[in-house]
Each structure stands twice: as C-alpha cells, then as structure tokens.
Specification:
Number of helices: 8
Domain CBS: 7-65, 76-131
Strand content: 15-25%
CATH class of the largest domain: Alpha Beta
Protein name: CBS-domain-containing membrane protein
Radius of gyration: 23 Å
Distance between the termini: 41 Å
Pfam families: CBS (PF00571)
Number of strands: 7
Keywords: CBS domain
Strand order of the largest sheet: 5-6-7
CATH superfamily of the largest domain: CBS-domain
CATH topology of the largest domain: CBS-domain
Number of domains: 2
Length: 191
C-alpha cells in the first residue's frame, strides 16, 4: 500500500504571509495536527503545527517585545519532510514513529497532492465491521448503564447481541436500538 492509497485530499493549506490567527482557526476548527504552507505553485515551503501555534502564543504572552500580529511564515517549520505518492505506508509509519511527526505532505513533481496523517495510516487496520460493532456496543452500554449487560459483534453488517434479557419487550427494545446504528443491516440475539 502506498501514500496515494491512504492520503487525504484535497489538503487544507495556508501561506507564509497569512496571519497566524487564520492558521490557528484552520487548525482548531478542522481538527488538524498541522497545515502545509504552500507558495503560489502549491509547492510546500513549510509546515505549521499545533505546537508551533502554542509556542508562538506563549512567546507573545511572555515577551512583550514579540509582535502579536505574526504571520505563518514567522513560526512555520522548514525544511519540511515530504513523501511521494508512491512511498510505502510502512515507511511512512516508521518515519512518523522515528521523527515523531503527526502528518506528512505528499508531493508529486514538487507539487502538493495530499497529506498523510497518523489517522490515515491507522484507518486501513480497522475493518468496517469493527467500526459498526464499536458503535453498537456504545449504544448497548448507554442503554444498560452502569452495567454492561450485553456484548455485540458485527460480521458482514449483521449484529449479534449476546446477554440476558429481563423479558421479550426488553429484547425488542434492544433489537430496535441496534437497528438505529448506521451500517447494521440485521440483528440476531443469542442468550
């Protein structure tokens, strides 16, 4: 599997002359760990991360001589580690572990075409049934709180609920609740 198979696109970016506060808004509102800083041709010239933004805010707070109206270019990291669309995902994961980076821009012929985050690297490890099962279990746990009375597994979009029921109306309610979870096509009860 290569970077092009898992990368996120389009990429939210910023420019070196953008106000730092605009980049902070993009980081926080988008839930991004970092933003590539690009030039007019979409070549990556830097990277701004949450850590960079926090560091810049602390500098302003502790050093009155630091101007509060800084630009992205004032605080961005450079040079930037990048990968190509053909970089193996295992190599990307290793770079993330070794270099402690949370995201890597993907460039093709020098131009930004995507970005790979830690979440992108993890996503192929999770099967859709696992995701659905996690949501089903959360619904069941919320309904039976504070005790976990039932367990759920999902295979081929069929939820199997195991556990004891007080009566058949409770069983029917649980089946109805599980049917509300997106991705569940059918529900079986065992126990």
């Amino acid at each position: 599997m290569e970077a092009s198979d898992i990368m996120t696109r389009p990429v939210v970016t910023t420019t070196a002359d953008s106000p730092l506060m605009d980049a902070v808004v993009k980081l926080t509102e988008g839930g991004f760990a970092g933003l590539p800083v690009v030039d007019e041709e979409r070549r990556v010239i830097g990277m701004i991360t949450e850590v960079d933004a926090i560091r810049a805010a602390e500098e302003v707070r502790h050093a009155p001589s630091v101007p509060p109206s800084r630009t992205v270019g004032d605080v961005m990291n450079r040079p930037v580690e990048v990968v190509s669309p053909h970089t193996d995902v295992n190599d990307i994961a290793q770079r993330m572990l070794t270099d402690r980076v949370r995201s890597l821009p993907v460039v093709d012929n020098g131009v930004l075409v995507g970005i790979v985050s830690r979440r992108d690297v993890l996503r192929p490890l999770v099967r859709p049934d696992d995701v659905v099962a996690s949501h089903v279990q959360a619904v069941l746990d919320a309904y039976s709180a504070p005790d976990r009375r039932w367990t759920a597994e999902v295979k081929d979009r069929v939820a199997v609920v195991r556990g004891e029921f007080v009566d058949s109306p409770e069983r029917d309610v649980v089946i109805s609740l599980v049917h509300t979870v997106p991705g569940v096509m059918d529900v079986r009860v065992e126990g």
